Amino acid sequence: MTTAEKYVTAAYLAVFVLLLAYVLIIALKLARLEREVAELERLARARSPRQPETRKAVAVG
Amino acid sequence: MPRANRLPLLAALALGLTTAAIAMVFFYAPLDADGFNQKIFYFHVPIALTAYACFGWGAWKAFVHLWKRTPGADLESYVAVHQGVIFGVLVLVTGSIWARYRWGQWWVWSSNQLVLFLVLFLFYAAYFMLRYSIEPGPRRASVSAVYAIFGVALIPVSWLAIHLAQDIIHPVVFTSKGPQLGGRELLTFAVSWAAILSLAACMYRLELAGKRLDARLKSLRELLA
Description:
The complex is a heterodimer. Chain A has one helix at residues 3-47. Chain A is mostly helical. Chain A is rod-shaped and about 85 Å long. Chain B is an all-alpha fold. Chain B has one domain (3-170, 182-224): Four Helix Bundle (Hemerythrin (Met), subunit A) (Up-down Bundle), CATH 1.20.120. Chains A and B meet through α1 of A and α2, α3 and α7 of B.
């Protein structure tokens, strides 16, 4: 590999690594959001226990 | 088309264009007098132009926020500036690698273009310090918007510096006589720029979706508290 090829490889690797770091940050954020959604779902379920189903009789036909 | 459907489409476009650009850079574009090192140009310059576009978009959204008080314009401005800073880092890194090979130095302080781009980059890096030094709310949004608009004035200065600079250290490809590139080089450059722009648009939408989701979860948490 020539010196020029090494520098070109380094430049392209720098772009690739920075974009991968960005993907990693977004992935970590997504994982945090998933945890928060799960926590909110648990909170919502705890606050509104399922009510016994009551149906009103209606005339059919 | 609903906003949510644009992200996969943009991601697919970015993937296709980036693959095409890399293939064209290495297998289609001819070598010029600069030799193999010139292959850096096909990504370095489009990344720089994309950084300018992101800063410009951020300033436009900031203007929309100040003018119409459109909900979400402040967040869009913030995300665009963030993308601009990311691409700014890439410009400085790829440019320094190119310079190390061509000039034997990582950085040349005597080049006006390099120094002005660094000033532009540092100005927008300081945007985050300013933004996070103010409590969230309308004041933070307005101050950030004014700052983002001021920053965009540095873009034409940076661009003009290339043409007005007497140092001739930094190569000038786009002159008043048009691009100094052959047909295959110009086509490769155009595809590379389209690839980087689509990548930036994809990253912008992705980050914006994350931030919006974050804000909605926060308000939902407050409702359930």
